[in-house]
């Protein structure tokens, strides 16, 4: 905007404030109107910045005192005030300063007989009321009483005025003090009656905006407790529920249904969760009684805060949220700088020398190593049906998987594909099994064997008690496998369950599963050794039998229109029409007697197996169940992960499940994510796989809260419902449902066994050690993987142990099973015979902790360890007693640093529940300071930008990876995470957290698809490829390596190009999801009802003007829909040269045309 214009505007405004000449004022108003009618809201903001609001208010003060009111001045003035005021964040303050509330109010009172002026007053009143402070003042001074005089029962007369009054009232009721005042004066009942009246009489839906406005009033009024109680007392639930039923069939009525649904949900009487306590059913006595009671942290929770008059948020701080984010950034340069501080006596680091056997490179050892390998090799070769005992390159990085482009999806159909990757490792028959047993005895890899055997020695009884969950009764194979005698034997078995070895043996005879890198027997062997708090006696079938990725990945679920609304109304129906509500508890950890054989026609639930965590199931209606997840051990929160078994289902019936104690404010389940399901019958028919499943999925706040009586919980904490419907593929099947593809501790341990035994020992150096025992007594494995030295020559041995380190970890958060699948991909690639892997092994020594929180995974936790702590918030000062895996992982890293061998790359694999795609979080001083807007001279701080190289590479080579989603900011709240501590204290420049979505991708090859295990594993292998390229780019390489790389990566260039091409549109913003597709906000402080929408009032003003132009009010029945064609025609005509060529129009009508022009629909 030019300087001249600026000064011109200032002259206009100051003249407006000082002049008493009516013509001058009218002229200025018309110029202002003209000015603001063009362009966008930016002009209005400009006028505001130059003191426009103040000038208009002062002019109003002067004009309002004229007697009788001078309409020709007041009308344009009020219109300008309404338009400017709603965009002026400090308007409330300015109104107070000008003492204008009383003026507007008394002007409105005096205009009661003049509907046009009154309507104008009400617009300004509404704008003033939107500000909390002036709204409260208006309330005290009788604004609501005035409005109630204007708001009438159904009538076709003066609907514009009625509408303006209702909307002003709604704005006033945002103030809680006004809401309370309204309730005590009996207005709530009045509003309900008015709403009913308009609802019944407006049969042609001409006055949707009036009905919606009345609902908005009710919505705000019920934000206070007194309002909700009164609403219930006035039969509000019944009335709204019934009227909504009339509206459901008409899509035009959405604005009404949405708000009514919100009110219904909000007023649904609060109930405590139906559990005796929010604390986990399982507790674990901590060593040394370190923490009897874990503190109630609730960083991400949502809390009810109504009931008392709290300081209401000032709209002036609209961008508080983004500020908060920035406040979290670390701005202390000293804290950002690397500082090698030890959290323990230096002498303690010596113990970690033993965890680096690769550095003690004496000849003997490596020789004996190869000796050992030989025996191993023999054995591997003796394994049946293992045509290649070298691991194939599992998800070959050289062949980008194109099958995913094929969109023809068959959920349960047979597998057409599976061409690549057909290397069955084992196929089991009875005879072979015994051979296996022999070899098993020969197992001589020290740790694994010791681990596996020791637990059986310790507790022989226990290992025999582990049984497979009973199978579907009518499975076709069942009768073949189990003859009647067998069945008798089974039934007479003391435990009443199938004894594992028989079942397993018989089952495995039928196992067509050639599931790569999975062996049911290895799984059982490992599972027997697991120490769990519930002392598991059952194996979940999917973990035992294995999972094979489906041939096609599934697109993200398209959200059904109005699904949340329908579900919420269905929930409310429990209260209004309780006839079909059963309310029977069918599974209950707290009251196990309820879990006994279920009532006929009722599903049977179970989850007492590794990673299972169902606490309670309640049959609500015939085909609907409420489910409650158990909290993390020694905690009262972190409900997100779920994994349970369900059986006795009917065919082709959609069952609705509601997980009613979720805590996150929002979920990817609102954005296309599905849960996963595994059907035992499908598996036995040759399709053993977890599939994305469920429809009508949504996630919303419910009426349960953490009551004081529940103890241990945070009082007033709100819960959310995840609801989904499932049609099971078979009758009387046994199915498993989970939040995400399960990956148990036993899965991981048996996977390591298989990798170890199937690698090429001549090429792959592999050491599996135990980092430490967990609190629960489970070993936490530590792997060392690199290439065997080329020869025993000195040079080769030196090269061998001088390779830089890469340190990888996963699964510190037990609910993030996706991280384990990514790790699986990494491990399989690292030990594979792929030439790239071969080269990579020659470049690095990999130290890998594949599961940092075994106890959490085993016991079905989502976030914590047995101590109830988030282990990824303990890295600053981990306790050797409470957080042993973190303490020792950090110790090992510190040891490496102390010998000058800090890793080149550190990466901790995680899962992200709010975002799509895969991305990295890293650490950068400069980016953090810039983002925080710090005045520190960043030019002085030198920073190696090498931390950006790896993510840039991954963006090119990994289809699921998106550079735009990466962030390199160091937040204060993350100062105790592995990423930040390893960066700061161990001095690793490339210290990352890798986040993989639970949902799907928005970019590239997998755009629009949900990720499956195959894509996650691929990410793990592509990460390895990225490391190799990083090495070539960043480190000096031997000629030999370069030559080999050149040979191999030529191929890669091509892939890179191809990937780039397919991702070329990957420049989109990658923000978090918007708050929600449908508003799920039932918060008391919610303002998200579209009232803040400027265009609405603008349109109202404009419509009114077109009406002034000669129509009668009674004809304006299309109000609230769109600008009528007549109005448009009027606009068009007045913008014709004829009318424009004259001097500035002075009549209010013409002025209005200008102001209306801006917001007319294009
Ligand atoms: Zn995590």
Give a structural overview.
- The structure is a single chain.
- The C terminus is likely disordered.
- The strands form 4 sheets. This protein has a 7-stranded mixed sheet. A 7-stranded mixed sheet has the order 15-16-18-17-19-21-20.
- The chain has 1162 residues and is an alpha/beta fold.
- A hairpin with a 5-residue loop joins strand 15 (764-773) and strand 16.
- The protein is built from 45 helices and 21 strands.
- Zinc ion binds at residues 813, 816, 910.
- GO terms for molecular function: metallocarboxypeptidase activity; zinc ion binding.
- One of its GO terms (cellular component) is cytosol.
- It is an enzyme of class 3 (hydrolase).
List the helices and strands and how they pair.
Layout: H1 3-18, H2 22-37, H3 41-49, H4 52-64, H5 71-85, H6 91-97, H7 100-110, H8 115-130, H9 132-140, H10 143-150, H11 159-172, H12 176-184, H13 187-201, H14 208-221, H15 225-233, H16 236-247, H17 254-267, E1 271-272, H18 320-327, H19 333-336, H20 363-382, H21 430-442, H22 446-458, H23 460-465, E2 467-468, H24 476-481, H25 484-492, H26 500-510, H27 520-529, E3 538-539, H28 541-545, H29 563-576, E4 584-588, E5 604-606, E6 614-621, E7 624-629, E8 643-647, E9 654-662, E10 675-679, H30 680-684, E11 690-693, E12 695-705, E13 718-727, E14 734-738, H31 745-758, E15 764-773, E16 779-787, H32 794-802, E17 805-810, H33 817-830, H34 835-843, E18 845-849, H35 854-858, H36 884-898, E19 905-912, E20 918-921, H37 925-931, H38 949-957, H39 978-985, E21 990-997, H40 1013-1034, H41 1039-1062, H42 1094-1108, H43 1125-1134, H44 1137-1141, H45 1148-1159
Parallel strand pairs: 1-12, 2-3, 7-9, 17-18, 17-19, 19-21
Antiparallel strand pairs: 4-6, 5-8, 6-7, 8-14, 9-13, 10-11, 10-14, 12-13, 15-16, 16-18, 20-21
Helix pairs in contact: 1-2, 1-4, 2-5, 2-45, 4-5, 4-7, 5-8, 6-9, 7-8, 8-9, 8-11, 10-11, 11-14, 13-14, 14-17, 16-17, 17-29, 22-27, 27-31, 33-40, 34-40, 34-41, 38-40, 42-43, 42-45
Bound molecules: zinc ion.
Zinc ion binds at residues 813, 816, 910.
């Amino acid at each position: 905007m030019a300087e001249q214009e600026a000064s011109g505007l200032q002259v206009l405004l100051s003249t407006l404030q000082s002049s008493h000449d009516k013509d001058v004022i009218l002229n200025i108003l018309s110029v202002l109107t003209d000015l603001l009618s063009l362009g966008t809201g930016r002009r209005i903001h400009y006028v505001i910045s130059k003191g426009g609001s103040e000038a208009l208010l002062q002019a109003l003060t002067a004009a309002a005192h004229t007697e009788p009111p001078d309409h020709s001045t007041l009308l344009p003035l009020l219109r300008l005030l309404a338009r400017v005021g709603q965009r002026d964040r400090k308007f409330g303050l300015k109104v107070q300063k000008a003492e204008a509330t009383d003026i507007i109010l008394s002007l409105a009172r005096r205009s009661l007989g003049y509907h046009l002026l009154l309507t104008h007053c009400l617009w300004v009143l509404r704008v003033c009321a939107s500000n909390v402070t002036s709204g409260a003042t208006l309330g005290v001074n009788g604004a609501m009483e005035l409005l109630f005089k204007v708001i009438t029962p159904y009538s076709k007369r003066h609907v514009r005025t009625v509408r303006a009054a209702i909307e002003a009232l709604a704005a006033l009721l945002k103030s809680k003090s006004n809401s309370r005042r309204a309730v005590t004066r009996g207005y709530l009942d009045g509003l309900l009656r008015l709403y009913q009246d308009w609802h019944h009489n407006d049969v042609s839906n001409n006055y949707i905006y009036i009905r919606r406005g009345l609902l908005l009033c009710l919505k705000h009024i019920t934000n206070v407790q007194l309002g909700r109680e009164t609403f219930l007392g006035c039969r509000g639930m019944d009335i709204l529920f019934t009227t909504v039923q009339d509206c459901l069939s008409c899509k035009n009525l959405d604005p009404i249904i949405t708000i009514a649904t919100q009110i219904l949900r909000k007023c649904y009487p609060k109930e405590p969760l139906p559990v005796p306590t929010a604390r986990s059913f399982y507790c674990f006595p901590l060593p040394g009684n370190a923490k009897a009671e874990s503190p109630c942290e609730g960083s991400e929770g949502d809390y009810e805060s109504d009931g008392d008059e709290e300081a209401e948020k000032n709209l002036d701080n609209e961008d508080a949220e983004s500020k908060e984010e920035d406040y979290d950034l670390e701005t202390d340069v000293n804290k950002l700088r690397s500082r090698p501080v030890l959290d323990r006596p230096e002498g303690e680091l010596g113990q970690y020398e033993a965890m680096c056997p690769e550095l003690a490179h004496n000849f003997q050892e490596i020789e004996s190593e190869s000796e050992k390998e030989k025996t191993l090799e023999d054995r591997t070769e003796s394994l049946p049906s293992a045509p290649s005992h070298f691991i194939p390159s599992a998800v070959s990085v050289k062949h980008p998987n194109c099958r995913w482009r094929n969109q023809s999806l068959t959920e349960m159909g047979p597998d057409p594909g599976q061409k690549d990757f057909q290397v069955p490792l084992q196929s089991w028959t009875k005879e072979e099994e015994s051979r296996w047993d022999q070899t098993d005895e020969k197992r001589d890899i020290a740790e694994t064997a010791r681990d596996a055997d020791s637990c059986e020695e310790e507790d022989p009884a226990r290992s025999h008690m582990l049984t497979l969950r009973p199978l579907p009764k009518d499975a076709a194979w069942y009768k073949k496998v189990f003859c009647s005698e067998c069945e008798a034997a089974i039934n007479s078995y003391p435990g009443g369950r199938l004894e594992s070895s028989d079942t397993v043996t018989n089952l495995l005879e039928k196992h067509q599963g050639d599931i790569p890198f999975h062996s049911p027997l290895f799984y059982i062997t490992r599972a027997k050794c697991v120490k769990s708090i519930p002392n598991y006696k059952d194996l979940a079938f999917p973990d035992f039998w294995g999972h094979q990725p489906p041939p096609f990945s599934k697109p993200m679920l398209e959200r059904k229109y109005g699904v949340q609304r329908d579900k919420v109304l269905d929930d409310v129906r429990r209260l209004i029409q309780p006839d079909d509500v059963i309310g029977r508890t069918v599974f209950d950890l707290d009251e196990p007697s309820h879990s006994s054989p279920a009532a006929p026609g009722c599903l049977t639930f179970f989850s007492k197996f590794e990673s299972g965590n169902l606490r309670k199931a309640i049959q609500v209606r015939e085909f609907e169940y409420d489910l409650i997840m158990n909290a993390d051990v020694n905690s009262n929160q972190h409900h997100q992960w779920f994994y349970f078994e369900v059986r006795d289902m009917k065919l082709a019936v959609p069952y609705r499940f509601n997980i009613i104690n979720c805590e996150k404010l929002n979920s990817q389940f609102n954005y296309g994510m599905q849960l996963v399901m595994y059907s035992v019958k499908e598996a036995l028919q040759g399709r053993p796989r977890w599939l994305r499943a469920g429809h009508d999925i949504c996630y919303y706040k419910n009426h349960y809260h953490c009551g004081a009586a529940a103890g241990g919980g945070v009082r007033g904490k709100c819960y959310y419902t995840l609801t989904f419907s499932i049609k099971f593929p078979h009758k009387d099947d046994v199915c498993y449902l989970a939040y995400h593809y399960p990956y148990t501790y036993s899965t991981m341990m048996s996977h390591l066994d298989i990798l170890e035994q199937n690698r090429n020992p001549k090429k792959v150096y592999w050491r599996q050690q135990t980092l430490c025992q967990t609190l629960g007594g489970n070993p936490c494995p530590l792997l060392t993987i690199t290439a065997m030295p080329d020869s025993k020559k000195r040079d080769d041995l030196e090269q061998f142990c001088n390779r830089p380190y890469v340190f990888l970890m996963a699964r510190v958060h037990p609910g993030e099973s996706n991280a384990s699948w990514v790790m699986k991909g990494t491990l399989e690639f690292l030990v594979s015979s792929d030439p790239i892997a071969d080269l990579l092994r020659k470049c690095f020594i990999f130290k890998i902790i594949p599961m940092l929180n075994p106890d959490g995974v085993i016991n079905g936790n989502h976030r914590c360890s047995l101590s109830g702590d988030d282990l990824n918030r303990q890295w600053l000062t981990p306790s050797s007693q409470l957080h042993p895996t973190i303490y020792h992982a950090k110790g090992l890293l510190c040891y490496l640093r102390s010998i000058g061998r800090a890793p080149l790359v550190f990466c901790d694999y995680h899962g992200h529940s709010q975002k799509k795609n895969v991305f990295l979080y890293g650490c950068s001083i400069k980016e953090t300071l810039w983002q925080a807007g710090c005045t520190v001279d960043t030019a002085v701080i030198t920073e190696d930008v090498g931390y950006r190289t790896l993510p840039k590479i991954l963006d090119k080579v990994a289809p699921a990876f998106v550079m735009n989603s990466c962030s390199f900011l160091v937040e204060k709240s993350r100062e105790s995470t592995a990423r930040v501590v390893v960066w700061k204290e161990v001095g690793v420049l490339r210290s990352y957290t890798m986040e993989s979505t639970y949902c799907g991708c928005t970019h590239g090859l997998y755009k629009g698809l949900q990720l499956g295990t195959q894509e996650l594993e691929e990410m793990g292998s592509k990460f390895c490829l990225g490391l190799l390229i990083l090495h070539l780019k960043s480190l000096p390489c031997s000629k030999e390596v370069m030559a080999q790389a050149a040979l191999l990566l030529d191929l890669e260039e091509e892939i890179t190009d191809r990937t780039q091409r397919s991702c070329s549109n990957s420049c989109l913003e990658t923000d978090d999801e918007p708050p929600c597709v449908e508003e799920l906000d039932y918060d008391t402080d919610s303002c998200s009802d579209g009232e803040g929408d400027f265009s609405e009032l603008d349109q109202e003003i404009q419509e009114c003007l077109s009406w002034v132009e000669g129509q009668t009010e009674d004809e304006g029945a299309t109000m609230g829909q769109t600008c009528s064609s007549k109005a448009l025609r009027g606009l068009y005509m007045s913008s014709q040269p004829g009318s424009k060529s004259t001097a500035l129009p002075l009549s209010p009508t013409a002025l209005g045309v200008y102001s209306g022009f801006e917001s007319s629909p294009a």
